[in-house]
Amino acid sequence: MENYVKQHCFDNENVSRYYLSPYVYIVQTDEGLYVGREDDEREFCFYEEVDVYIQLFHKLSEGMTEGEIYRYLEEYFSEKSNEILSLLIGGGIVE
Amino acid sequence: MKDCSCSYISGGAIEGTEFWLNDLWKFEAGDKNLLLDRQGHILLLKKNLCNTIWNQEISEDLLLKLLQRKFAYESENIDKNGTEKNSDIKPMFFMIDLTNKCNMECRYCLRNVEDDSDKESITNDMIDSICEYLAQYCKQIGDKRITIQPWGGEPLLETEKIFLLQDGLKKRGMNPQITIETNALLLSKGLMKELYQRGISIGVSIDGYQKIHDSQRVIHSGIGTHQVVERRIRSIQKLYGNDISTITTVTRNSLENLEDIIEYLAVDLGLIYIKLNFVHRSCFAMNDDLCLYAEEIADATIRIFQKILELHKRGIEVYEYNIWLKSMNLLTGKKLDVCNSNGCHGGKRMIAIDKHGDIFPCDVTDFPEERLGNIKTDKDLIALLENSVGEKAYFKEKKGNECEKCPWQHYCRGGCTVHMKCATQEQDVDMIECTINRNLYPKLISLILHEPERMNQLLGYEILKKEP
Ligand code: SF4
Ligand code: SF4
């Protein structure tokens, strides 16, 4: 179980930060990393840089700004960073 | 423990945006609010931030949180109830009824162990057919992560069949999780070791300390089994460490001593994973004197909750499955349990197969009218279940007058189909589960709002972030 996933209590300060959704599931297999929402059918599989995603999810469970996520992704995925960021937010993985 | 207040808020347009707010329940305590929607999502907010929703001063940041949590929708997309999809039909939990023989005669047992007419166990051929059936099924759904529970009677009377089942599945490229619930009488050290080496997990039935256990769990001659069972539990602990769970049945006979029983399990035996079940009134109860009413069961559930909190305060680590599960329901939305995470999912996420290969939606193999099909004739399990959902009374929606406006509906959905079926009076919902939910969930929400660290202890990890 992803016991780093957290339920945060939002206030005026942290509401602008992004967090890993408490409704995600993360399953690591030989093929790659499956990440999805428990409450709908959205699921993504990341085949490469699995450790990079796992580390990102750990960081996100504590909260990050959009800029921080972007800079983290940029280091590993350069021009694909924007696409990945919108996928994570659009897919409800990050909220 | 302090309580919290609750109000129901009907959804509507969020002014100045093209979004709609879903119906929700708002719980308040101190400077915090907890919002709960019809699909079981929660959102924790400081009161002043929460008030901006109703003062129409909602910020873009908060709107994004509401959208991501599904509290808000694009107007044309609104799906208030989160209707069930056919994709929810995908059994991953299989009970295999090996035998109805038993080497004990517990005072509250529902199975008619005195009836000798049908005491045959499953055959080796049938085990092989079940292995083939499950292997084909896993191939069809592209997922091998199934769990199997060999069931009885006492499953260890058919230990060889359990191993045959495991080996048969392994031969077909599968390695399912196997779990057994046993009365432990046959658990010799040698057998324990073999189960351990095979990765089979064990749950042991123990009803409390000697006086209580021996008044309920006896062999045919009437002699209590406590001494043996306690010894077995200590041996299992040496081998499995903390990875042993116990199942305790609470009856009218033991109700008064509930706290002492939990103390015994958690402190004297040092068990971490315990589960308490209740004997309730039903048309099948063999011994009415031992049965409890719904209100008594709900009251006892709160006592269990309080006792667990008290043990945590004393630094003792212990998790009671039902309390843990309902806390997980609220905080993670994971559908961890076939019965109590999102209503009864018998025949959808679980099936039982009996010794004739007949398929049932749950371990209701004693009710012929609940038979859905047979592994020999119904090769496509998903198709069989999809058809059955539309046809069989078992799958009928359970809804009482109060369910529509009930905050716990997503988790409960009218409770256990079999409880309802066996109730002594006709009911629209399972009144036992209903009464438990209506008493327990508000207490869990109070704990989340007032004492998040204690909720973290209840779950065993820091899911609620410490506030600065
Ligand atoms: S009928 Fe009851 S025991 Fe069976 S799956 Fe449904 S809720 Fe669980
Ligand atoms: S059965 Fe009771 S607890 Fe369950 S949804 Fe209906 S009113 Fe709520």
UniProtKB/TrEMBL annotation, chain A:
<protein>
    <recommendedName>
        <fullName>PqqD family protein</fullName>
    </recommendedName>
</protein>
TrEMBL record, chain B:
<dbReference type="Pfam" id="PF04055">
    <property type="entry name" value="Radical_SAM"/>
</dbReference>
<dbReference type="InterPro" id="IPR023885">
    <property type="entry name" value="4Fe4S-binding_SPASM_dom"/>
</dbReference>
<keyword id="KW-0949">S-adenosyl-L-methionine</keyword>
<keyword id="KW-0408">Iron</keyword>
<keyword id="KW-0411">Iron-sulfur</keyword>
<feature type="domain" description="Radical SAM core">
    <location>
        <begin position="88"/>
        <end position="314"/>
    </location>
</feature>
<dbReference type="InterPro" id="IPR058240">
    <property type="entry name" value="rSAM_sf"/>
</dbReference>
<keyword id="KW-0479">Metal-binding</keyword>
<dbReference type="InterPro" id="IPR023867">
    <property type="entry name" value="Sulphatase_maturase_rSAM"/>
</dbReference>
<protein>
    <recommendedName>
        <fullName>Radical SAM core domain-containing protein</fullName>
    </recommendedName>
</protein>
<dbReference type="Pfam" id="PF13186">
    <property type="entry name" value="SPASM"/>
</dbReference>
<dbReference type="InterPro" id="IPR007197">
    <property type="entry name" value="rSAM"/>
</dbReference>
<dbReference type="InterPro" id="IPR013785">
    <property type="entry name" value="Aldolase_TIM"/>
</dbReference>
